[in-house]
Amino acid sequence: MPIQDNKIEAEMNRGFLQVMVLLALETPMYGYMMIKFIEEVGYSVEENTLYPMLRRLEKNKWISSRWDEEHGRPKKYYEITEEGKLIRKKVLAIRQIQNRVITKLFKGVKNG
After folding, report:
1. What is the dihedral of CA 35, 40, 44, 49, to 10 degrees?
2. pLDDT over 50 (residue 39)
3. Which of 8, 10, 21, 109, by CA, is between 20 and 30 Å from 72?
4. Could you give the domains of the chain?
5. What b-and-e string marks burial along 62-87, b requiring 16 or more CB atoms within 10 Å of the CB?
6. How far is 26 from 39, CA to CA, in rounded Å?
7. pLDDT score, position 112
8. What is the mean pLDDT of residues 63-86?
9. pLDDT(54) > 90
10. Does residue 12 surpass a pLDDT of 90?
11. Half-sphere exposure of 109 (CA within 13 A, CB side)
């Protein structure tokens, strides 16, 4: 049975992208600004991935949004909430544990 790379990548990226968004939104950003920010740090995300995720995070009350008019064009700014900061802290702690375990396992594979 062949490995479906795109499904594996999509599944792994979902959680990773949520963490990136929760980190990035310490500073309020609108969607396109967030896409550019994520690209600047060496990752990429498409609009059709980011915007549904933003809606889910807002529904979970991990982020909030507000409309602001800049140069006559309304833009929806997103920002992390206090609840989102707690979730971010928990998720980052889990990722640290996962990274330690993967590092140990990888060392065992290399030495084995």
Report:
1. -20
2. yes
3. 21
4. 5-111 (1.10.10.10)
5. bbbbeeeeeeeeeeebbebbeebeeb
6. 17
7. 59
8. 94
9. yes
10. no
11. 6
